[in-house]
Amino acid sequence: MSLSDRMTGRWGELYSDLLPELLPAMEAPLQHHPCPHPGHISRHGDAFRLFRDWNESGGGVCNTCGARPNGVLMLEWLLGLDRDTVVAIIRDWVDRVEPVSARVRWRTPAIEQTTQEDDLKLASWLSQLWSQAARIGDPGAETARSYLRSRGIPDWLIMRTGNLRGVPSLITGRGSQEAYPALLGRYQGSDDQPIAVHRIWCTAEGKAPIEVPKKTTPHRSDRAMRGGAIRLFEPYRGTLGVAEGIETALGASLVGNMPVWSCLSCGLLSYFVPPEGVHHLHVWGDADRAGIEAAERLAKRASHVRVTIHIPETTGMDWLDVWNKSNEITDPSA
After folding, report:
1. Is 160 a member of any domain?
2. Which of 131, 170, 191, 266 could in theory staple to 294 by disulfide, Cβ–Cβ 3.0 to 4.6 A?
3. Do β-strands 260-262 and 239-243 pair in parallel, antiparallel, or remain unpaired?
4. pLDDT tens, position by position, 88-108
5. Is residue 261 classed as helix, strand or coil in its secondary structure?
């Protein structure tokens, strides 16, 4: 299935996560709204609207800036990124975020009551999923710990993490009879409130043999992933690092000897909001175009704190790769 087919009917979910400034236009898609482009808001007035089929196509138009008939062009325009980077962000999102069934993720008067009811059910399910999981040091999380060890993370660091749990068996999707152990990470917003749970289905030797072993749960319609992270450790004396995936963040913690949080993806990394009390933010980006551009965008957004960007020297590597490479045992006879 093409990326376009996979995104049909899901642009509202992605925009809720990555472009919440589009929410007014999503609530009333045929009405005109202020142009959402950062450079145009103050001077273009109510010139923007989404197309009638926007949730299928992602498209919209500003009467001054022109039409963006699909979601790729919309993200290129609003994020200021090239096509390859935008496609990488979309692909990462659609691979990671579980669809929200038939539930609508934005509000209109006709569906608000249904949306609120669905939100309550979802919040209850997320709370149950997390509360029934074993803490990372408990016996029920043994496979999750073994998975992290197989990735090169030492036990002493695993045992110090927060907001990671494990379950000995978790169904891999709606209607599926297949189940594997899973590592769970609790994703919190910039206001500390839990938003979603990231799941990595695994075995003691690595990722589970399923098509998509990493998925993030849906989240409430009135919350957005943007700005948050999985808070793996407490900041230390005003210093904090951020990276993309959980394993990458743990690798960066080892390399940099500092607390590093996981934002899950390059798209979410670029929108991270440093918590109060953090005055030095270290951005541990992946060594690819999307990772580098996300790190640079975050540095611009977080200009109120000191920001240091770290990128691996070798293209294609992340910070877990760097950690594991630095710990390779070299055969002295070679």
Report:
1. yes
2. 266
3. parallel
4. 889 888 888 877 653 444 444
5. strand
* Helix residue ranges, H only, the chain: 3-7, 11-18, 23-27, 41-44, 54-57, 71-79, 83-96, 112-131, 142-150, 155-158, 246-256, 266-269, 289-301, 319-326
Residue 273: CB atoms within 10 Å:
16
* Segments forming the whole domain that contains residue 306: 230-326
Q: Is residue 111 part of a domain?
A: no
Other beta carbons less than 10 A from residue 37's beta carbon: 16
Say if residue 68 is in the same domain as residue 92: yes
Contact between 144 and 199 under an 8 Å Cβ cutoff? The reply is no
Structure tokens at 62: 């500003």
Quick check: 253 and 246 in contact, CB under 8 A? no
* pLDDT above 60 (res 334): no
pTM of the entire predicted model: 0.79
Q: Are 40 and 64 in contact (CB under 8 A)?
A: yes
**What total number of domains does the chain contain?**
3
DSSP, collapsed to helix, strand or coil, labels residue 139 as helix
Residue 107 CB burial class (10 angstroms; 0-12, 13-18, ≥19)? middle
